[in-house]
Specification:
- This protein is an alpha+beta fold.
- The chain folds into two domains: 107 residues, Fumarylacetoacetase, N-terminal domain (SH3 type barrels, Roll), CATH 2.30.30; 294 residues, Fumarylacetoacetate hydrolase, domain 2 (Alpha-Beta Complex), CATH 3.90.850.
- Helices cover 17% and strands 27% of the residues.
- The protein has ten helices and 27 strands.
- Strands 6, 7, 8, 13, 14, 16, 17 and 22 form an eight-stranded mixed sheet that branches. Strands 9, 20, 21, 25, 26 and 27 form a six-stranded mixed sheet that branches. Strands 4-3-2-1-5 form a five-stranded antiparallel sheet, with no helix packed on it.
- Helix 6 packs across helix 9.
- The structure holds calcium ion.
- Calcium ion binds next to loops.
């Protein structure tokens, strides 16, 4: 399938992010008005809440878009998701008879402030990139023990914090934490000196579950995908993570892109997970391709400086799909909720320039990365990190919008800790 042409001319550009094929879901406001649901098309946000108010968009018989989040639409289920796309496709298609009615609901993206697109019910972060797991394991435990013995059998993860998931553009303050002291000295409490990013994708769960679901059922439960930066304090992580895994090192913030790209927009880009190195048990096997070919990059811009792309990789590098992760999550009987967010794990490719964290790019700080006007082992105050991603179709792209955040200096001695 090629580009679906729209009467919104800016939606027909080959390298634009928001063609009619995409229709990603966000929440926006203009000039201090209340935030409302919108869909990106070309250089505009389509005010779908306004369309609903005007009676032009009726979903599931009731208002679903008059709230500043997409959870109500998700909860209405996959048939409603499909009818939303069909209706918007009809409105925005080149030559649509509805143009005159719809056009007043277009707001220039440049006038819009973007907000969190959904209420994050709970947040789970996985560790499903083989290159990332091998690299980090090699640094922390040596190359012989790099992959934990369970790694090729289950998608391992930890329960993160929904409360600190923020939308692109939100500044992120360098955390304080307890870090290991030298040799037998006491640990110290200080601002993190090894603050890092993790380039990930996030899957947004759109259907609730009770009890265990299959991988195919899990795939059907996913509403869409976002870009995700799992900010990580490596010095805090190294001290705290044994034996229960990451805790405060990952709790500061998780930044997501402002647009949820619906799974339907990504259908043409499905790819299989890589060949299994050992067979998976039946309950985790994929029945079809459930990963996506999505080109990803992360760029760093120092305060007042020029941007450098740190890494380019692809979501297809993951060893486990979000559907496998979600199915695994339910094996315990754990109910999944509308608005659950699943982090993929850091997406690192096989080469040095495709690693998805500074920990790997600088190899634990031993090989600082050259950037325009300097070098980095870890993040410095004032650095802005921007994740970008797109799926490349024939003559069009499916984009997510930038997923950006700037590092603010740590608070000074927040609880008199330095005394
Ligand atoms: Ca992570």
């Amino acid at each position: 399938m090629g580009l679906i042409r729209s009467w919104v001319e800016s939606a027909n550009q080959a390298e634009g992010q928001f063609p009619l094929n995409n229709l990603p879901c966000g929440v926006f406001s203009v000039a201090g008005d209340e935030p409302r649901c919108g869909v990106a098309i070309g250089d505009f946000v389509l005010d779908v809440a306004g369309l609903e108010e005007a009676g032009l968009l009726v979903l599931d018989g009731g208002p679903l878009l008059d709230v500043p989040f997409w959870n109500d639409v998700m909860e209405a289920g996959p048939e409603v998701w499909a009818s939303l796309r069909a209706r918007l496709g009809k409105m925005l298609h080149e030559g649509s008879a509805l143009r005159a009615e719809v056009e007043p609901c277009l707001v220039p993206l440049s006038d819009a402030t973007l907000h969190m697109p959904f209420l994050v019910a709970e947040y789970t972060d996985f560790y499903a990139g083989r290159n990332h797991a091998f690299n980090v394991g090699s640094m922390f435990r040596g190359p012989e023990n790099a992959l934990p013995p369970n790694w090729l059998h289950i998608p391992i993860g930890y329960n993160g914090r929904a409360s600190s998931v923020v939308v692109s553009g939100t500044p992120v303050r360098r955390p304080w934490g307890q870090v290991k002291g030298p040799d037998h000295a006491l640990p110290s409490f200080q601002p993190s000196r090894r603050f890092d990013l993790e380039l990930e994708m996030g899957a947004v769960v759109g259907c609730a579950s009770e009890g265990m679901v299959s991988v195919a059922e899990a795939d059907a439960m996913i509403f869409g995908y976002v870009l995700l930066n799992d900010w990580s304090a490596r010095d805090i992580q190294a001290w705290e993570y044994q034996p229960l895994g990451p805790f405060q090192a990952k709790a500061t913030a998780t930044t997501i892109s402002p647009w949820i790209v619906m799974k339907a927009a990504l259908e043409p880009f499905r790819v299989s997970t890589p060949d299994r190195e050992v067979p998976l048990l039946p309950h985790l096997q994929e029945m079809g391709p459930m990963l996506y070919d999505i080109a990803l990059e992360v760029a760093l811009q120092p305060e007042g400086g020029a941007e450098t792309v740190l890494s380019r990789t692809n979501y297809a590098e993951m060893y486990y799909s979000a559907a496998q992760q979600l199915a695994h999550h339910t094996t315990s009987g754990c109910p999944m909720t509308v608005g659950d967010l699943l982090g993929s794990g850091t997406v690192s490719g096989p080469t040095k320039d495709s690693r998805g964290s500074l920990l790997e790019l600088s190899w634990g700080g031993k090989e600082p990365v050259e950037i325009t006007g300097g070098r980095r082992s870890f993040l410095e105050d004032g650095d802005t990190l921007t994740l970008r991603g797109h799926a490349q179709g024939a003559g069009y792209r499916i984009g997510f919008g930038d997923c950006a955040g700037r590092v603010l200096a740590a608070h000074k001695d927040p609880v008199g800790a330095g005394r």
